[in-house]
Amino acid sequence: MKIITMYCFFLFLFLVPLLASFAEKKVYIVYFGEHNGEKALHEIEKTHLSYLQSVKESEEGAKSSILYSYKHSINGFAAKLTPDEASKLSGMEEVVSVFPSHPGKYSVQTTRSWEFVGLDERKGQSSWNKFKMGGDYLLSKANYGKHVIIGVMDSGVWPESPSFSDEGMDPIPKSWKGICQEGVAFNSSHCNKKIIGARYYVKGFESQFGPVNATEDYLSPRDMDGHGTHTASTAAGRQVSDVAALGGFAKGTASGGAPLARLAIYKACWAIPNQSKADGNTCLAEDMLAAMDDAIADGVDILSVSIGTREPLPYHHDIIGLGALHAAKRNILVVCSAGNTGPAPGTLSNPAPWVITIGASSLDRAFSAPVILGNGLKIIGQSVTPYKLKERYPLVYAGDVVVSGVPQNATGQCLPGSLDPHKVKGKIVVCTRGDGLRVGKGIEVKRAGGVGFILANSQANGNELSCDAHFLPATAVTYDDRTKILEYINSTKNPKAMISPARTVLHYKPAPFMAGFTSQGPNVVDPNILKPDITAPGLDILAAWSEASSPTKFPEDHRSVKYNFLSGTSMSCPHVSGAAALLRAIHSDWSIAAIKSALMTTTWTTNNLALAQRP
Hints:
Distance between the termini: 77 Å
Number of helices: 15
Shape: globular
Largest sheet: 7 strands, parallel
Strand content: 15-25%
């Protein structure tokens, strides 16, 4: 018995370290603060490896576990660690903090807008629409931002877009220290005097998800999603005439806010494996921190970040805030989106006081697609769907035509598989916003045999109407109009309707109004800091698009476009990035606080009806 006990004891001693070595490893970020400027880059990396080696069993183990050594402005590293190893590092005197990376925490926040905010120099504009500085127009005084470098951290870029032409541009600024990193379907020739640099950051992503699937994304700065191309062109795209969205909507001249500013692309957001692009992508903290560290060293003047979280993060766990703090110390303004989880209070993303945080509002353009009810009532909806109905069809509410087993709180939402084809075929279906994706609701109606659908706002969405390129005739209506349509359906035995073709309407009133999706304060991280700082156009924004993506990003969508509509604080963020670049061009000696102050204190507080806007 004693021999067996001794055997079990020694077996236990043997297994403890063995089990520890198999403990689940995840990526942690070890942060030391700032560099003191006394060490060369290779010495910094060697120091980081020495810390790792102190908790690993060998030098080889330390080298194989490290993903990034942040060597420029940010002092730290990202590595695969066990919880015990992370705990040991956090106890070391020189270490400021150690925190885990959480996949899925960060994601991107998904033409006429510049004319609306006053950056159009054509004559005949109303005084409300003009934005002057010192008696001269801002654009010409800033020389269109020609010497300013805007960094964009996002999903990459589609360099062939006319919005990124370098025709007639001056040589690359001598202050630029970045590179043009080659990869799949992207080589040095894709950089030019407009896109002066491009990099991609994938170590954190591949550590979590494995190698990038070539059918889902490019292992390079090239954009297969569309979001990064859209935000980059909104901030600094060239002026391109005669562009339009699918169906010819919003035809006109597309331009970024600072059309002669230079762009530096930092791809840190990737397609989530085996998921539809319409569900969004993911941006790993360790990849973003590496991108921001490089952007600071490369010499960007403005860093545009249309990325955020669904919930506010404390400053010591906020990677974007942390990177932005180091940028701020070098007088680089970081512009961030506020998030799209409104209208609930306390949902704000990117609350750090040293960034400028942007909410989303509308502009004075609409895409009128009226619904004509059988009783003659005309309801003005909106759509950018390039399909139309030529006659009236039976009209039904989705909640009345679902299959059995659909939860009561989801019956009206046209979720996948919820509609009964026997009750839907040949009809127009009214679907309510809420759970599920807007375009996905139309796909469900089409699957069930519907000929069209009306996307009706919930009470939370209010008057905000997001326009999408649906797969069948469709229009979106407000919550009040939803009520009118349902009242009509319930008032007659044979309800019918027709959806009229959509058309572009300019000088729409009232505008702007706050988008219902925009995340709101109060700032739960620090209630003493008021956020968001400012709002900008973020509803139905037309900008350049990746030709490897589709207008809706659904796998069923095989259409291709060069310019596309998107809504979100992701779209409002680069508007402010472009405006900030113009101010930087005029006042190169200004601090980022001065630029932020100038932007915030010259905003409008009334709409085009001279009515005060709600906060």
